[in-house]
Amino acid sequence: MQTTVKWVDGAMSLGESGSGHSVVMDGPEDLGGRNLGPRPMEMLLMGTGGCAMFDVISMLKKSRQPVQDCRVEIQAERADAVPAVFTRLNMHFVVSGAGLKDNHVKRAVELSAEKYCSASIMLGAAGVEITHSYEVADTAAG
């Protein structure tokens, strides 16, 4: 896996993935940016959420659960000193579907956290305190 990040101007950079996809990253105006893209640390959180959500959706589909929607809401805290690394993260999964089984969602979130999500497991190994929570929204109800 490889990527290239190229400086554009001020605090803006353009990241290009090995698969040929590009994303603009930028900083706030007070740090020379123009606020035209997410911050690099936000990208790290989004990537972690995407990695974990992919695991959860894959496992639920394999267990034939009727997933209609899924999102991961991530709350993160960073150190006050430089480097301002992540110190805590909560990944809250909201999974929707008609007749989803709570125990299947719980198990998928646990397996992602403990075994499959490379991004969150890597952050945890670096000392980030990571917690996971979930809720199931049954779209068949009411």
UniProtKB/TrEMBL annotation:
InterPro entries: KH_dom-like_a/b, OsmC/Ohr_fam, OsmC/Ohrsf
SUPFAM superfamilies attached to this UniProt entry: OsmC-like (SSF82784)
Stated name of the protein: OsmC family protein
Organism: Congregibacter variabilis
